[in-house]
Each structure stands twice: as C-alpha cells, then as structure tokens.
Design a protein that fits this description.
Layout lengths: L8 H21 L3 H19 L11 H8 L2 H8 L8 H8 L5 H6 L1 H13 L7 H4 L6 H42 L3 E3 L15 E3 L2 E3 L2 E3 L1 E4 L5 E9 L2 H23 L7 E6 L3 H9 L3 E4 L3 H10 L8
Helix pairs in contact: 1-11, 2-4, 2-9, 5-7, 10-11
Length: 311
Amino acid sequence: MKAPPIWEPVELEREADRARELFRAERLAEPLTLWRRTYERFSSVFAELFRTRGITDPSRLSKEALAAIFRDRDLATAFRNLAGPPISEDDLRVLAETTLAPSKLARDEEAARRVITTILESIDSMRFPWVGESRPPTKHELDAAILASAALVTAQRVATKRRNTSKAQQESRLKEYLATLGKKEVQPRLIQTLDDAPLRGEFCGESKVGSRKADVCLRLGDGRLMPIECKVSNSELNSIKRINNDASVKAVRWREEFGLNQVVPTALLSGVFKTRHLMAAQEKGLALFWAHDLDRLGAFVSLAVSASRHA
C-alpha cells in the first residue's frame, strides 16, 4: 500500500514558512468592517446594560431584571463579561448552580441571587472600580468601562469568527478539491468499522470515527480510511493545541481502534506552525499535507489504489 509522504525537517520548514506568509497576507488584507460592526454593537449593548438596566450596581438587580437580561443574548453576554476574566455561559451555570433560563431566574429568587453573587465576586475591579467602593461611577469611569468592555467582547468575537471561518473555508476548499479528483461526497455517518465508512472513492463531512470526530473522511481506492483534520493555527503556541494535543492524539487512537494498515490519519494545515511540533506529530503516525499545496494530497490519493488495479 502507498504510504503518505514523510517530510524531512527542511521540507517542513519550507512549507511552514510558506503557510506563515500566506497567513500574514490574509490577515493584513482583512477588512476592519467586522471589528467595527461588532464593537459598535457591543458598545450600545454595554451602554444599555449600565444606563438602562441598572448594572452600575449589580447587587441591586431584582430577579425579574436579571431574567430580562438573560432573555437577550447580547445583554447576557455583556453581563457575563463584567467578570474578570469573563465567565462563560457553561461556567456560570456550574458556579451559580442553576440553569440560566429566564423563566427559572424570574421565579427563583435564590437562583437569581447566586448568579448575581457569582458575577459580583469576580467582577473586574480595573474596569468597574466603583462597584467595590460602593459608590456611583463618574461619567469618565462609565465611559471608560463601556469602551473597555466593548473592546473585550469584540476581540473575543472576532477571534472566534476568524477561527471558525478559516476552518470552514479550509474544509470547503478540501471538499471542492476532492470533487475535482472524481470523489463523491456522501452523508456524514458514525464510523465504528470500515464497513460503516464511505465506499471507495467517496468522502463525507464531519463524522465520528471510532471514539473521535474527523472533519472529513475519505475512503481511498485501496480501501483504507483517511480521516482528515483541518487545522488552522494563528501562532506557534496555538499549533501545539491544534496538532500535538488534538490531531496527533486522534491519530494514535484511530490506529489503535482500526489497525495500522486500515487508516491514514491526516492533518491539512494552514497558518502558523513550528517545525518541531510537526515533526513530533508525524512521528506519531499523522500524515501531514498543506492547504496551499492540495495537489500533493491529490497525488497521494490518486496513487493509493488497490493492488488488483495494478495487476
């Protein structure tokens, strides 16, 4: 069976440099529209939270007022971001020991009080110094708090949007490329054995392969399953999470669950990666390809055909 390419360190360094340059070019060309639109949106949200909803003193919120905040996703996001660092929705449920459903908060005084107390105990004293000092804010403090809070949420939202968009675009380009190779897309499915996988020459979108999910699952012409993880990294530190703590771990697990000769665990890379992290992933059995050189992936896929076809 055809083995996927094994990269030498100098080759990985060269391709990583190319991916980094493409990443820089895309970021520098990115319009500021999303940032400005998100900032303006949450600047208005925080202004409403402080000036209309009475959050300058969260301790005075009634359960009805809190429930009203949680009926609006943006207001709820702003409320959770009063904490420093911000508290996620899931964490707030755990810390306050309650659901955040508005109907629950509106009728349960104790649950509402636990939510408010959780925020108060972790409130960002740098942005909201007046809360700890039990006094009203000055106009300057309030304006500064709105500005800082809107910028904080905007940074979170834009970063998440970038990651999700980049990953989705990479998956879309991969599927389009596989189609040009004559591969047929079929429905995602649960793949516990090779019998569950797409037929040879077919691929599907995100599916659970054994115990872990893969972004794209391609069945090679020789019958092996090629679960592909689309990995976009914005920093060398982030690449450790994307490759070594995620894709590499999946590669080891898939090879254990399906057998060394039955799967070709693969990562499709774009963005910023450190060569030694990639070498470590490759040594664990993860095949590496680059989003800026899909033809190399295509060459491997085209050569991975059954022995009978060569007879």
